[in-house]
Amino acid sequence: xxxxxxxxxxxxxxxxxxxxxxxxxxxxxxxxxxxxxxxxxxxxxxxxxxxxxxxxxxxxxxxxxxxxxxxxxxxxxxxxxxxxxxxxxxxxxxxxxxxxxxxxxxxxxxxxxxxxxxxxxxxxxxxxxxxxxxxxxxxxxxxxxxxxxxxxxxxxxxx
Length: 159
Known about the structure:
The protein has seven helices and two strands. It has helices spanning about 1-15, 15-35, 45-55, 65-85, 90-105, 110-125, 135-145, and strands at about 40, 45. Helix 2 packs antiparallel against helix 4 (about 65-85), helix 2 (about 15-35) crosses helix 6 (about 110-125) and helix 5 runs antiparallel to helix 6.
């Protein structure tokens, strides 16, 4: 029985992190991009978007119109960075901040959904965009030139 469990664990451990990160990039990007699409009409923000920010979302400290523009811009641009894997850690950090604001001020009862978004975004922030990304190509080029160095951090412990 132990050998069977050990065999499964070994197979699970061989799942490439790049595949996990790619899935996180695509799915979380879709969530935010689709939300951004609902806020626009062509190249303009819908009047209903301003109404939502004034009446339902009510984010403190930021004027309603500015919050609507900032959120819509982030929802439509950060997914493009995630999907291309260009500045993916930055894009994930921006969307994690946005998720924290949504959770705290807008929909505090949606913690399960926001928790799943946060996990995916934290995976991207920790691991980077993975092998299928522009970030990876840039890093490989700079490692070859000695900018990053070729040493990788030593992992301590298991987990």
